[in-house]
Design brief:
This protein is of the alpha/beta class. It is 45% helix and 14% strand. Strand 11 and strand 12 form a beta hairpin. Helix 8 packs parallel to helix 11, helix 13 packs parallel to helix 14 and helix 14 runs parallel beside helix 15. It binds beta-D-glucopyranose (BGC).
């Protein structure tokens, strides 16, 4: 066992050394020319449920507080971004970034079916206003995994009426906020449940499906439809219809900002002649890339590569470096997913998420360097990439895994809520300020 571990470590070091050497070659050679197009967006992202705290009217809050639950811990106060957003946004601007991507929370804006809260909409107007004061572009996600609990009680996205509900929310929110929004996405990773089905391990979705009955009882309903669980085909079709109708609603309510959809994408590599890679691509990305093709842009969210076997992804090879999520450390994935998405959807691309879960911030810096070298390669080949938004601004609530994984450029002490920018924050902020590697 010890020998195996040592051999694994040696392999990891070798792989890393090789990776770094070839990268250093690339980045040194191109360093002088490695600037980005004028107006390129440089940002960091958050999502309401992961940072705001006390999202008590949302479906996930219900699931977090069930016994048994599939969550390691509840989200609680999260990073208290709901109150601390002015300082967080100022910090982002001061670090050198020009964009803030965040989500507005449907469960706050429409806490009961048909009841819209002007006070909560005003809250998000204030968030947007601080961004503008700080000269940050605003990139707003209308749905980032969470929905109101009343919506879950009506069957969630499996209910065909979900399309009307989501469209009405998009219309109301755009009317109230649209003049301050620079670009918007209807959905964050609507395809992630499909992507998870290809994972070689069960991350708890199956257990989740078994507790939705308890969740329904907890909210006094016979149903509990939540995004990550349930009949994925029904869910997908209603979400695609919601994307198109939601986008139309945003455009007719405000008319100003471009709208896209942010797709979860892995760099899928065929492992063996019988690899299901092309089937996976069609099932997981196909319908959403076609939806993106009819939108203003594709948002790409990439973390790693997958070696795709006949029916599932294969586990990472022995000895490779793993992130806190158990994914392979593979920043080169970003270049490949940009190329694939751009070739399919043929609309401009924004990297709306890319990052790494690690306690070792020097690995984050390495990840960013190598991922951005890939963005440069795409730009050199004429691909229309318009921005790079890092996940995440803050260490935050990583869904079922709780607060253990660290994706932030900025550490958060959850006792005191004190923020401490990590070296990676100044590293990426410096690139943003120079608009050049
Ligand atoms: C999601 C984020 C999540 C991140 C890291 C993406 O799938 O959009 O909410 O925190 O990946 O796992």
């Amino acid at each position: 066992m010890k020998d195996r571990l040592n051999a694994d470590k040696a392999l990891t070091r070798r792989a890393l050394a090789l990776g770094t050497a070839s990268l250093t070659g690339v980045s040194q050679a191109s360093a002088a020319a490695a600037s980005f197009p004028k107006g390129f967006l440089w940002g960091a992202a958050t999502a309401a449920h992961q940072v705001e705290g006390n999202n008590v009217n949302s479906d996930l809050w219900v699931l977090e507080h069930l016994t048994p639950t599939i969550f390691q811990e509840p989200s609680g106060d999260a990073c208290d971004h709901y109150h601390r957003y002015p300082d967080d946004i100022k910090m982002l601007a001061k670090l050198g970034f020009n964009t803030y991507r965040f989500s507005i929370e449907w469960a706050r804006i429409e806490p009961e079916k048909g009841f819209f809260s002007t006070a909560e909409l005003d809250h998000y107007r204030r968030v947007l206003a601080v961004c503008h004061e700080q000269k940050l572009k605003t990139m707003v996600t209308f749905h980032h995994f969470t929905s109101p609990r009343w919506f879950a009680g009506m069957g969630g996205w499996e209910n065909p009426a979900s399309v009307d509900f989501f469209t009405r929310y998009c219309e109301r929110a755009s009317k109230h906020l649209g003049d301050l929004i620079d670009s918007a996405a209807t959905f964050n990773e609507p395809n992630v449940p499909m992507l998870l089905q290809w994972l070689p391990v069960d991350i708890g979705i199956a257990r989740g499906n078994s507790i939705t009955g308890n969740a329904a009882r907890a909210i006094g309903s016979s149903k509990f439809g939540t995004f990550l669980m349930g009949n994925q085909d029904a869910l997908r079709d209603n979400m695609i219809a919601s994307h198109h109708r939601g986008m139309q609603a945003m455009k007719s309510a405000s008319g100003k900002f471009p709208v896209g959809v942010n797709i979860a994408m892995s760099d899928d590599q065929a492992a063996g002649a019988d690899s299901g890679r092309d089937r996976k691509r069609e099932q997981v990305y196909g319908p959403w890339l076609r939806a993106a093709a009819k939108s203003d842009f594709t948002g790409i969210q990439t973390y790693t590569r997958s070696r795709v076997g006949p029916a599932k992804d294969l586990p990472p090879e022995r000895g490779v470096e793993l992130t806190q999520m158990g994914y392979e450390f593979w920043p080169e994935a970003l270049e490949q997913t940009i190329r694939y998405a751009a070739s399919q959807a043929k609309v401009p691309v924004y990297v709306t998420e890319n990052g790494v879960g690690t306690e070792d911030d020097s690995r984050r810096i390495e990840y960013i360097k190598r991922a951005l070298a890939g963005v440069q390669n795409c730009l050199k080949d004429g691909i229309d990439v318009r921005g790079y938004i890092h996940w995440s601004l803050l260490d935050n609530f990583e869904w079922m895994l709780g607060y253990r994984p660290k994706f932030g450029l900025v550490a958060v002490n959850r006792e005191t809520q004190q923020r401490t920018p990590k070296p990676s924050a100044s590293f990426l902020g410096g690139i943003a300020r120079r608009n050049s590697l």
